[in-house]
């Protein structure tokens, strides 16, 4: 079997972020919960734009775009999409044109990620209320239009949740294992969000190929467990397709997935998750937002309180700082 560490080292990618991101203890939370060994992996500090997990994915995806000699990147998502805004920042750094397609109404006042997109001079297409299928069709037509005009466009598919995007979190798992070994950090459990499942797939696949150094706990912020599981498995299949390194595990043997903290799903906060935004900021001086990391925090704290974990635990902060400014 080929070595995943070697594979990632040699993979085609472009440098966008500053790595490794910090990994440090949450001392006040430890005191509050009377638990020793609560850590945070600061992927909110990936070093470009407002920061966040998508920078890791974009290193591989835009690496592919540059390899294909593309000069224009099309990203799509809801108005406060972290992916869209981070793509715009990455395009600025790389000197590429960025086109963003948002489904949703254009707001009266530009806030959060939309303000950043404006400052970054991304070309914004607000297409109003639309389904994902309608948005994808709009993107497809834009792609054809740009191609006809002599550009070399590249489309970022599915909010960067693809096998190629998930390589970012295979790489992050390798980085975390190295940090734990070098710093002698006793972390054995990671808590991370599951939206479309890209972060989850990368973590689960990478962790399995590294010999399971961590227990991976995925907190769904969007779909029911069965649906998220399906998305994760699909993305792992794509990872295998790309790396040609097989994944010979049953998913339930190498991770825990829970949908207990998702509330009504993506973008709909629960009372506990909103409370977590305030509590965590006031406890640690670190900002999380309503959609992803607040729900993970609620799930992690519950697992600690209910003694479902032992030893060092790590909260993977995936960012989303840009969107926070539109949430309250
Ligand atoms: C996109 C995103 C995620 C994870 O999404 P997946 O689709 O599950 O990979 C998590 N947190 C933030 C802040 C994000 O922007």
UniProtKB/TrEMBL annotation:
Gene3D superfamilies cross-referenced by the UniProt entry: 3.40.50.1100
KW Coiled coil (keyword) present: no
Keyword Glycosyltransferase annotated: no
A Pfam family recorded for this sequence: PALP
InterPro entries linked: ACCD_DCysDesulf, TrpB-like_PALP, TrpB-like_PALP_sf
Alphabetic keyword roster: Pyridoxal phosphate
Top-level lineage group: Bacteria
Required cofactor names: pyridoxal 5'-phosphate
Domain Tryptophan synthase beta chain-like PALP: 15-319
Cited PANTHER family: 1-AMINOCYCLOPROPANE-1-CARBOXYLATE DEAMINASE-RELATED
Family to which the UniProt record says this protein belongs: Belongs to the ACC deaminase/D-cysteine desulfhydrase family.
Name of this chain's protein: D-cysteine desulfhydrase
Species assigned in the record: Clostridium malenominatum
